[in-house]
Amino acid sequence: MSGKTLYDKLWDSHVVTDRPDGSSLIYIDRHMLHEVTSPQAFEGLRIAGRKPWRIDANLATVDHNVPTTGRESGVEGIADPISRTQVQTLDQNCNEFGIVEYGMNDKRQGIVHVIGPEQGATLPGMTVVCGDSHTSTHGAFGALAHGIGTSEVEHVLATQCLVQKKSKNMLIQVDGELKPGITGKDVMLAIIGTIGTAGGTGYAIEYAGSAIRSLSMEARMTICNMSIEAGARAGMVAVDDKTIDYVRGRPMAPKGEMWDRAVEAWRDLKSDPDAEFDKVVHLDAADIEPQVSWGTSPEMVTNIGGRVPNPANESDPIKREGMERALKYMGLKADTPMTDIRLDRVFIGSCTNARIEDLRQAAAIVKGHKVAPSLKQAMVVPGSGMVKAQAEQEGLDKVFLEAGFEWREPGCSMCLGMNPDQLGEGEHCASTSNRNFEGRQGFGGRTHLVNPAMAAAAAINGHFVDISDFYSKAG
Amino acid sequence: MKAFTKHTGLVAPLDRSNVDTDMIIPKQFLKSIKRTGFGPNLFDELRYLDSGEPGKDNSQRPLNPDFVLNQSRYQGASVLLARANFGCGSSREHAPWALEDFGFRAIIAPSFADIFYNNCFKNGLLPLVIDEKEVDELFKSVEAVEGYSVTVDLESQTVSTPDGKTYSFEVDEFRKHCLLNGLDDIGVTLEDADSIRAYETRRRQEAPWLFPAG
């Protein structure tokens, strides 16, 4: 019999019971909640007269809908009354059910997928779920983490379990040495460009190989974060010393003797050498260039040195039509060099790229320069209050502010534009977020996905530039 | 949950692949704390020519005449015919809520995104996968014949067309059972409460750091 994959191990250790129809009841160790996908779940509990099964497994924060400026007057000061009601509803629900919540002005508040790892609420070997598709982020810790809908949020609250059918195993192996300046974001966009946005549907992906091992925990989080953009609900990376070093000392991480026991168990959170995968994809790290998306799906991506593709060269009629529609929406002509795309706004933030390393990479590019006068706006939105405080301690806020960037309060912000941070119709934005769907960042807005340093360089130049030179000089 | 057994309804064809949940229901409507009322804003950016906002009177907004659901021949449609990877992107359950609220009971596509697919079953909405070639055939038939309706039978796992064709589809036993009977799956899980407690007891021994509160 072949060995087990990391996913097999995580699955097996969480099976409460197998059902005759092939589904299983899976135990959930950590449930994260936010204001947008939870109100109807709490309402469901109340209607059915149910209580949460295990209160201490839940952790809540407000992120999607909160303003990133003017928080002095608190929740009462949220200008949009519908947003205010939603934020207040989470506060009331957490209060009523006794769930810990980092409210809007708590310094630990932030994007749910930033604060979980930051607080040690995410631990190796856990099952982690949240009513948000980017929950896959937490898989970077050797955890089984995925997004769920609101009915399942209610199900987890009420039972601490989910009814699941096991996914297939996919291995994405990235070997070799990454070029200087190539980030987790570029690796992941290159993967999505290779396997497509539905390439991972039905699979749990494990990212492995020497290039993945060489990446920091934060870069691994960026990769796992966008598993859903490759169609997979869950993505994960095996535990190594970097994982353990990152978790050590976090407020909710185990301490003392318990820590030692936990680490011993976590060392086994890797695929066995003889484990078999249903699908294996190889990428050569040395081939990966800085990535920029040109279209309206994350698979519509190319190298910074590339051009907007020409639909005439696409043989599949459905794909060709999709490309033509995307070019029309994006207001781009086929064969335009990516570096010729003029930008209106730049957004550095989101659960994909708003951690301290992301801000450091962007600040290193920005330092001593000014935002191009042709830009309407360039903003930096830290992923959490803790990231913001750390960045300010390092003086990164001053670097951004002196260059003409706005320095905001933490939240999801312009990644999805539920709050006032939105693109105008027809505006092009270099964004470190995860989705370039039509209308995602605002009605008629045009998103180009890039890494934080690329976004920073684009802000200074007013268009995309190849930052490879910067790293080879610094190198 | 509303049960689904057999449904006959007019088919509307949405001929584009990778339809994401942002497209199905844009983010500004996710501020609602209710499960209902999303139908008028289903496919908002495709359906209307202006930008929609919560509370706006949708009956006064300019409709996009090219959008399939605005065409007179598809009024009253309750079966949506779609392309590959339907429902990709965000996990928002507001997407199936909006489809259901609009009046759809079933969605036919060659493939669905995992989270969306799962969310549909929680809301009495049946997503069913049939072969890409069969989906192509259906697109041709629907566009050729006005008033084209199909019958979706969950018990027999078939879709029957007016021209006498029958397509079969797969569905998990548990999901089928819940949908046929309109079951609350939380209630079903709670029948296993003893197993959940036994798991917790065992796990607390193996991995006590997962139970910091004891």
Automatic annotation (TrEMBL), chain A:
Annotated Aconitase/3-isopropylmalate dehydratase large subunit alpha/beta/alpha domain residues: 8-462
Binding site for [4Fe-4S] cluster: 351, 412, 415
Pathway(s) per entry: Amino-acid biosynthesis; L-leucine biosynthesis; L-leucine from 3-methyl-2-oxobutanoate: step 2/4
Any Gene Ontology biological process: L-leucine biosynthetic process
Coiled coil: none
Reaction catalyzed: (2R,3S)-3-isopropylmalate = (2S)-2-isopropylmalate
PROSITE patterns: ACONITASE_1 (PS00450), ACONITASE_2 (PS01244)
Subunit structure: Heterodimer of LeuC and LeuD.
Similarity field: Belongs to the aconitase/IPM isomerase family. LeuC type 1 subfamily.
Protein name (database record): 3-isopropylmalate dehydratase large subunit
Organism of derivation: Halospina denitrificans
Gene behind this protein: leuC
Automatic annotation (TrEMBL), chain B:
Enzyme Commission number(s) of this protein: 4.2.1.33
Keywords: Amino-acid biosynthesis, Branched-chain amino acid biosynthesis, Leucine biosynthesis, Lyase
Pathway(s) per entry: Amino-acid biosynthesis; L-leucine biosynthesis; L-leucine from 3-methyl-2-oxobutanoate: step 2/4
Cellular component, GO, one term: 3-isopropylmalate dehydratase complex
Domain Aconitase A/isopropylmalate dehydratase small subunit swivel: 1-132
SUPFAM superfamilies, A to Z: LeuD/IlvD-like
InterPro entries, sorted: 3-IsopropMal_deHydase_ssu, Aconitase/3IPM_dehydase_swvl, AconitaseA/IPMdHydase_ssu_swvl, IPMI_Swivel, LeuD
GO terms, biological process: L-leucine biosynthetic process
Highest taxon of the lineage: Bacteria
Subunit composition and interactions: Heterodimer of LeuC and LeuD.
The family this protein is said to belong to: Belongs to the LeuD family. LeuD type 1 subfamily.
Name of this chain's protein: 3-isopropylmalate dehydratase small subunit
Organism name: Halospina denitrificans
